[in-house]
């Protein structure tokens, strides 16, 4: 799959498919994983790195990077810290009221 063929989170939300209740429910159950994966993928691509290069820089196999980017893992804080450090990012974790805007 090329970069131009990828569906972004915004693209998924705008699609006709997302209007189906079962798709919305499945997305909400995994939303955070998808958003984290997309953020890592976008930063990695911005840096011009392959998944293998990111894996090398944070001590993870390429297959783990691929699963993470596709929302297929439930990452630990340690994993998030390693990814953020390798990507030159700062990890911020917050708990907020659902009414916070």
From TrEMBL:
GO MF: DNA binding
Pfam families: HTH_3
Domain HTH cro/C1-type: 40-94
Superkingdom as given in the UniProt entry: Bacteria
Record CDD domains: HTH_XRE
PROSITE patterns: HTH_CROC1
The protein's name in its UniProt record: HTH-type transcriptional regulator/antitoxin HipB
The organism of origin for this protein: Nocardiopsis metallicus
Higher taxonomy: Bacteria, Bacillati, Actinomycetota, Actinomycetes, Streptosporangiales
């Amino acid at each position: 799959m090329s970069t131009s063929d990828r569906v972004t989170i915004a693209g998924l939300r705008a699609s006709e498919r997302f209007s189906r209740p079962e798709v919305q429910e499945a997305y909400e159950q995994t939303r955070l994983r998808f958003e984290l994966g997309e953020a890592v993928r976008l930063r990695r691509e911005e840096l011009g790195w392959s998944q293998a290069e990111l894996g090398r820089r944070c001590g993870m196999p390429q297959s783990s990077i691929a699963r993470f980017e596709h929302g297929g893992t439930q990452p630990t804080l340690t994993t998030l810290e390693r990814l953020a450090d390798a990507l030159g990012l700062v990890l911020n974790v917050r708990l907020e009221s659902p009414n916070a805007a």
